Amino acid sequence: MAQTGITDLIAAIGAGAVLAGGVYGLLLLTRRLLRLLPAGPSLRLPTGPVPNTWPLILEQQVPLTGELSEPERARLLRLVQMFLHEVPIEGCSGLQVTEEMQVTIAATACLLIVNFPYPRFTALRRVLIYPDTFVPVHLPSRHTRGVETEPEPTLGEAWRDGIVVLSWSSVRRGDADASGGRNVVLHEFAHVLDGEDGAFDGSPILESPSSVRDWRQVFEAAFGLEHDAVRESTEPPLEPYAATNRAEFFAVATEVFFEAPVRLRQRLPELYEQLRLFYRQDPAARSRSPSAP
């Protein structure tokens, strides 16, 4: 669809959206229409010098980056520069944010988008870090690593208004075990990608109608397997929490895709292929981790 066609469509139904759902309704509509637009402009990365402390932080704190190619690692460092320039990272409950914390979180998040040719995380406004588990503010639009009933201690959240909240102790545990399939930063920033169209539904912005169709077909089949296994108390392809809803399934699948890619490719090969196409990466091909038993 041409740019002018989409603009006319927005104008034609915008008034109805405002009447039905107010300003938020129009915003949600506009974000969903973004699926019809071509990819954005090429990403212009910073060109200033990268601090000489950052490669060592990546080596020690984000071992997943060790499997990137040299061009990918160089691009990742530039993305970290951009991330830290644009997104404040703030400590909570007296936590003092250090360079190590900033670079660790930014690099892990940017690992998701290292091969994207255009900007992402465009709605992200800030990252909040607690020293350990925290009791979240009860918001119906949040997505967490805990159970979404009454507020209780949790490890991470992603909010629709562009805020990500993380437990630093959980960040450290996830990065220390780079093959465990659990990483709170990957999980919450997968939610950020998922919500870029205004909806946490397990369907990130894709580039063509055919890719949307293929994604939905494969994703629904895989989610159905996960949900049925949990309901029948058998071993699910991922982990039981992934059956919570489609948003959590996508976030958990993203964690496993990067941290245990061989296992995911063996258990859900079609889902692995869709994630490979979306993230423009093939972690199983470069992984040194053993196959699943």
Strand-helix topology:
Blueprint: H1 3-33, H2 54-61, H3 70-86, E1 89-91, H4 99-111, E2 126-130, E3 143-144, E4 156-158, E5 163-167, H5 168-176, H6 184-194, H7 209-231, H8 246-259, H9 261-267, H10 269-279, H11 283-286
Parallel strand pairs: 1-2, 2-5
Antiparallel strand pairs: 3-4, 4-5
Helix pairs in contact: 2-4, 3-4, 6-8, 8-9, 9-10
What is this entry, summarized?
The protein is α/β, with parallel strands linked by helices and 293 residues long. 51% of the residues lie in helices and 6% in strands. Helix 2 (54-61) packs across helix 4 (99-111), helix 3 crosses helix 4 and helix 9 (261-267) crosses helix 10.
Name its key features.
alpha/beta; Cyclin A, domain 1; 11 helices; 5 strands; disordered N terminus; disordered C terminus
Question: Can you tell me about this structure?
Answer:
- By secondary structure, the chain is an alpha/beta fold.
- It has three domains: 3-36, no CATH class; 54-189, Cyclin A, domain 1; 209-286, 3-Layer(aba) Sandwich (Collagenase (Catalytic Domain)).
- Helices cover 51% and strands 6% of the residues.
- The protein contains eleven helices and five strands; from the N terminus they run αααβαββββααααααα.
- It has helices at residues 3-33, 54-61, 70-86, 99-111, 168-176, 184-194, 209-231, 246-259, 261-267, 269-279, 283-286; strands at 89-91, 126-130, 143-144, 156-158, 163-167.
- It has a five-stranded mixed β-sheet with strand order 1-2-5-4-3.
- Strand 1, helix 4 and strand 2 form a beta-alpha-beta unit.
- Helix 2 (54-61) packs across helix 4.
- The longest helix is centred in the first third of the chain and has 31 residues, at 3-33.
- The model is unreliable at 1-38 and 289-293 (pLDDT under 50).
